[in-house]
Amino acid sequence: MGVSEADELLAMCRALTDGAGLAGVLAVLRRVTSAPAAFVDVRGSLLASVPSRAPWPLQDLRSWRPGVEQLGTPPRALFPVVLEGDVVALLVVSPEQADRTYFRMASHLATLELARLQALLTGRRERAGQILEDVFRGRSLGEEARERLSTIGIEPGPQISYSVLVGRSTLSGARLRSRPWNLHSLLAGRGDPYVRATVDDDLVLVVPSADPVPTIAGMLLEHLRAADPDASVGVGPMVSDPVSLAMSYHQAREAASVAGLHHARPLNLGYLLLGSADTVPVREFGVRALEPLTVHDERTGSELVHSLVTYLDSDCSASRAAERLFVHRNTLRYRLNMIAELTGWSPDTFDGRMHFWIATRYGDRPPGASTARNEGRIG
Amino acid sequence: MCSLRLDSPDPASADDFYSALAGRPRAAAFSGDSTLPTARQRIAHSHPSDVSRWIVGFAVADVPAALERCTAAGAVVQSARSHDGALRIRDPDGALFELWSVGTGHRDPGTHDVVLADLYTRQVADATSFYSSALDLRADVLPDEPSDYIMLSAAGTHVAGILDMTSFLEPATPAQWLPYFHYPTVDRGIARATALGAWVVVPRSPSPTGEYALLQDSWGGLFGLWDGRSLAQPGTAGHGGLSGMGPR
């Protein structure tokens, strides 16, 4: 790096430390390169532009995908702003003006600025996560729950209700906590637009009733899909008290068990207990409970587990299950008797059904759940 | 202006979006303060449309006389609504607006006040001549970059404006009137609007009458945010959108 480049880098740094933000960095860049320049978030929304009124290929930028380094007519060069491995914004410039050193410096400085602001936000998200987790788990109830929720801006009551959105992806809780959600809000020093936290590696948003929840749920899914195409979002019902807020969370959590965007079904206490059973290794017990059947299936090529799941999914109607399995009803009856013989629990008794329901349904993406859950699919 | 209508391909969702943007009461925001625009807009939806499209309404003392001036200058009447008497007019450059009789707009349940609207056009001189004549408004040139701002006022009150969009909007963008939602801090308005799904097209920028930004909704419609700075400056031509527009 030459002396003049170092001077300009310092000028860009000073723009940030003086509070001029990304527009300040762009102003230095324009002075040096004479090129119009802009920072755009990955949705294609303009964060800063010098000059402020300039033509940018915003429609094209909305469909930008990683690896694309140039787009638009006339062509614009793109320099990614990367935060913890994720491209969160783009520096857009005219390629013919390219002394790329300055553009790279500017995009790195933008990364530093966003990382600084994001670090401030991460602590706030951790605090919100702690409070929400205590309310959702029932560790904080009644007036205490109200008071704690109010400290993070959630004040359910007759005048205002909330919906809990649960987003699930392969990203870890730590990654979710440190990932920016709305750069406009971040750069304006306003943190997250909605209370946002990470609970059990799920991303949780609490959205007030005045706002268009389906739109925000769609944006959350888009945000998560950028990292995981199979991401999911569950939308809990609108509620107006802390206990119901916890129920909205658990319903949304259950709805988020299938990829895509889903509204929650009415609360099912069975699923709720399964999802909350963290004192007993239910998943492992379920595997063991089904082991005689899986061993038999592997050894003989029978379909006892599949038959069992189909039978339970058919509300224990043997004729409907047989039809779905493309077997004779007597064949299914034979298999059910075999299951009782191998496990000691008959699928024809209530206790047996409950036992097998838990064994087959435990987990985030239970087998055979798609039929029932698709009823709540909204997108 | 005295009314604001929105043609939208999805009126219900658009209503949710603009109601939230215009500030239904909500609890204190997470960051510890709240953001409520001072103007509580209610927006009427008129016709379904492929993209969002605003139609602003101006109240004039003598509708027939104003209409005569409009048509003489090349405007075309699009429709006349029998139930409220508003005339929908397409100006010579293609931008839609409505004419109301003074007073009727405010009483009509389907009409709603707005803070301010600007005409975005590429024919600034022609548009200035047309609107100052047709609506009997005073036009003042306020120097700005990259092009001057034409302030239209009535009785010393800033009611609308005209600006050249050539340098920053796509060539296919038609001439149109765009409303501004009043957010005392434009950045907060941007944060709010983008959280609701909007995109920023022009970031917060200075102008002769205060800071503003231009955004786009999910259905392709453009709208503005404006800090209303000149509202709070005694001795200057204040923005009079909330009180409507009368003859000069």
Tell me what the structure shows.
The complex is a heterodimer of chains A (379) and B (248). Chain A is an alpha+beta fold and 379 residues long. Chain A folds into three domains: 3-115, Beta-Lactamase (2-Layer Sandwich), CATH 3.30.450.40; 116-276, Alpha-Beta Plaits (2-Layer Sandwich); 282-361, PucR C-terminal helix-turn-helix domain (Arc Repressor Mutant, subunit A, Orthogonal Bundle), CATH 1.10.10.2840. In chain A, 51% of the residues lie in helices and 15% in strands. In chain A, strands 2-1-5-4-3 form a five-stranded antiparallel beta sheet. The longest helix of chain A is centred in the N-terminal third of the chain and has 37 residues, at 100-136. In chain B, the strands form two sheets. An eight-stranded mixed beta sheet of chain B has the order 8-9-10-7-11-14-13-12, with helices on one face. In chain B, strands 2-1-3-6-5-4 form a six-stranded mixed beta sheet. In chain B, β12 and β13 form a beta hairpin. In chain B, α2 runs antiparallel to α4 (124-134). Chain B is globular. The model of chain B is unreliable at 25-42, 105-113 and 234-248 (pLDDT under 50). The chains are: A alpha+beta (379), B alpha/beta (248). Chains A and B meet through β2, α7 and α8 of A and α1, α5 and β12 of B.
